[in-house]
Amino acid sequence: MRHLMLSAAAAAAALMVIPAAAQAQDTQLVVTTTVENYCSIGLANVAGSNVAVANGVRQKVTTLRMSCNAPTGARLTSTAVNGDLKSAGGVLINYDWELVVPAIPALGFAPQDTFPTNWQVVTNSGGYSEQLADGIFADLFLNLCYGVPGGPGLGGTAGDTTPGSSGCAAAPSGPGASEAPAGTYSETFKFDLDPA
């Protein structure tokens, strides 16, 4: 029995002499997420896509809301399909159009005349913008070239006398809104927002 006790004591002493190997443990966690590219544009203040305007001077037609998070920024292509307000009989009312983008003025454009073709204006945001990624607004204005003389589809010879109209004065292509025959005149605008 005594022998057993000594052996047990010797075993206990041997355990105390052997150093225990401590192992350090590292833990690493990598979390990733993906933000998809998006560029979108839509009408912000009208219920549908048809808007009536008065036969007068510069007026806001609609407000667009656009957002784009592309690292290279956004390119906006604004298209006027007819280039003039057009009746079913082909009579044209000339207009200026203008796009005002207070948050990023480079995406807008100053008042300018359109032509009876597929007229486009391409603008660029100039790189990534947190404001644009969050969403910004743009206002589309028309000036119906109220006093421009001319004929059905023919270029006029006198400019618009209304202040603030640059395109109307430069290249009238039809009668002004005050001289046009009675009827309904329409124009289609398209806006495409893409990564720059």
Automatic annotation (TrEMBL):
Residues 157-196 are annotated as: Disordered. Keywords: Signal. Residues 159-183 have a biased composition (Low complexity). The keyword Signal applies. Residues 1-24 form the signal peptide. This is Spore coat protein U domain-containing protein.
